[in-house]
């Protein structure tokens, strides 16, 4: 059984504000944040562990970073929001300075990780991410190209995470997995360049 413990919209919320020295975050190094996604992720992991012990059902739980790709809903992340703004010829809003970072991973890489995890049952939590931090401002720059559009900066949202990336090392070891799509190629596929 493969169990997701985070989604593209909550992965950084589940881990919380990770100390700079601990980025990219290793599996299970959740902050002491008290928020709904964090509490749910911990509960899911506890339930999976108990179910494994009581019923001998193996599982692999995946914590996925910020997923992006074709046909993503606009409300499902900053990449989709920026793509929609570009398509409409509008300037997007960037919350805060734009220096906050995220770990963006292309959807095809995530699917590959899920397929590999489906045959594993080690009772482990495994991160699915690149381990690379990309600033929100840098993401916009990479996506906007020669559009001439400049983002509008608005006040940071309370509770926003400033820096985030997760370590893919355990995925390499246990799933023989690594992301194969770099950000530039993934954005090109998303924006219709490939």
Q: Can you describe this structure?
A:
The protein is of the alpha/beta class and 194 residues long. It has a single domain (2-190), classed as NAD(P)-binding Rossmann-like Domain (Rossmann fold), CATH 3.40.50. The longest helix has 20 residues, at 36-55. Helix content is 37%, strand content 15%. The chain is built from 7 helices and 9 strands. The chain is globular and about 60 Å long.
What is the secondary structure topology, with strand pairs?
Layout: E1 2-4, H1 11-15, H2 36-55, E2 60-64, E3 66-68, H3 78-88, E4 93-95, E5 101-102, E6 104-106, H4 107-117, E7 124-128, E8 134-135, H5 136-144, E9 152-154, H6 169-175, H7 183-190
Parallel strand pairs: 1-2, 2-7, 3-6, 4-9
Antiparallel strand pairs: 5-8
Helix pairs in contact: 3-5
Summarize the structure.
The protein is of the alpha/beta class. The protein has a single domain (2-190), classed as 3-Layer(aba) Sandwich (Rossmann fold), CATH 3.40.50.
Report, as a whole number of angstroms, the end-to-end distance: 34 Å
Helix content range: 25-40%
CATH class: Alpha Beta
Strands of the largest sheet, in order across it? 1-2-7
Give the percentage of residues in beta strands. Answer: 5-15%
Report the biggest beta sheet as strand number plus sense, adding barrel if it closes. Answer: 3 strands, parallel
Any idea how many domains? Answer: 1
**Which sequence of SSEs, written as H and E, runs from N to C?**
EHHEEHEEEHEEHEHH
Radius of gyration using CA atoms only: 17 Å
Low-confidence stretches: 6-10
Counted beta strands: 9
Q: What's the overall geometry? A: globular
- CATH architecture type: 3-Layer(aba) Sandwich
Average the pLDDT over all residues and give the rounded result.
Answer: 87
Structural class: alpha/beta
- At the third CATH level, what is the topology name? Rossmann fold
CATH superfamily: NAD(P)-binding Rossmann-like Domain
